[in-house]
Specification:
The chain is α/β, with parallel strands linked by helices. The chain folds into two domains: 4-125, Response regulator (Rossmann fold), CATH 3.40.50; 131-225, Arc Repressor Mutant, subunit A (Orthogonal Bundle). The protein is built from nine helices and eleven strands. It has helices at residues 12-24, 35-44, 61-70, 88-96, 109-123, 125-128, 157-168, 176-184, 192-206; strands at 4-8, 28-32, 49-53, 79-83, 101-104, 131-134, 137-140, 145-148, 151-153, 215-218, 222-225. The strands form three sheets. A five-stranded parallel beta sheet has the order 2-1-3-4-5, sandwiched between helices. Strands 6-7-8-9 form a four-stranded antiparallel beta sheet, with helices on one face. It has a two-stranded antiparallel sheet with strand order 10-11. Helix 7 crosses helix 8. The protein is elongated, with a radius of gyration of 20 Å. The protein binds calcium ion. Residues 9-11, 53, 55-56 line the site of calcium ion (CA). Calcium ion binds at residues 9-11, 53, 55-56.
């Protein structure tokens, strides 16, 4: 399980608590105290899920949710709204604004974690499943095994991690620096060209005969794992 989760909440003790619990589940967490900060983070990198507090200084949670829903780039991000208000009218208003779920404070962390898991399972199943299958390639996270067309693909640890990161974000272009962060970690002292070298090795390990190249090179941007097998004429 490795989803990117953005918490928008001004109560720092709650942010610390949620961050701790979400990171323990393997998620990558970023946090904003205000709507303005949240906007900057949303522009930087699209999260898989937003946990949004209703009561914030400045722009309210409702307004932020409305803005998330109004922009095509963020429209489909699931939002869980946190609030102290338990009134039925407020609940309906929250859901009408486009929140996917609604948790009333005070809530138990276990309850919120269960909601997070349920929403991710629905919205981003590849983030929570043990097994990811795209076209004829299956990656089993629990067994650390990759199979293509029934044959086991042998990968070094770096190529395995690279494939995992690419498949988790299938259909999205990842820049070389995002891949560096995801595969080597932020502290890694690795050149961006290293990414190209390892993508080359990964392709070589994955492709036999006339099997499709599922990793698309996007000029000037990075790499993208295809969500389905590219048609013959599209193959390089
Ligand atoms: Ca608050």
């Amino acid at each position: 399980m490795a989803a990117k989760i953005l918490i928008i909440e001004d109560e720092s003790a709650l942010v610390v608590l949620l961050r701790y619990n979400l990171e323990a589940e393997g998620h990558e967490v970023s946090a904003a105290m205000t709507g303005e900060e949240a906007k900057l983070l949303l522009d930087e990198e699209k999260p898989d899920l937003v946990i949004l507090d209703w009561m914030l200084p400045g722009m309210s949670g409702i307004e932020i949710c409305r803005q998330i829903r109004a922009r095509p780039e963020t429209r489909d991000i699931p939002v869980i709204m946190l609030t102290a208000r338990g009134e039925e009218g407020d609940r309906i208003r929250g859901l009408a604004t486009g929140a996917d779920d609604y948790v009333v404070k005070p809530f138990s962390v276990a309850e919120l974690m269960a909601r997070v898991k349920a929403i991710l399972r629905r919205a981003a199943p590849e983030r929570v499943a043990d097994v990811i299958t795209i076209a004829d390639i299956t990656l089993d996270r629990a067994a650390h095994r990759v199979v293509r067309h029934g044959r086991q693909v042998r990968l070094g640890p770096t190529e395995y991690r690279l494939l995992l990161v690419l498949m988790e974000s299938a259909g999205r272009v990842l820049s070389r620096s995002q891949l560096l962060d995801g595969v080597w970690g932020r502290d890694g002292d690795v050149d961006e060209r290293t990414v190209d070298v390892h993508v080359g090795r990964l392709r070589k390990a994955l492709i036999r005969g006339n099997e499709a190249d599922m990793i698309r090179t996007v000029r000037g941007a990075g790499y993208m794992f295809e969500t389905r097998e590219p048609a013959d004429q599209e193959r390089a």
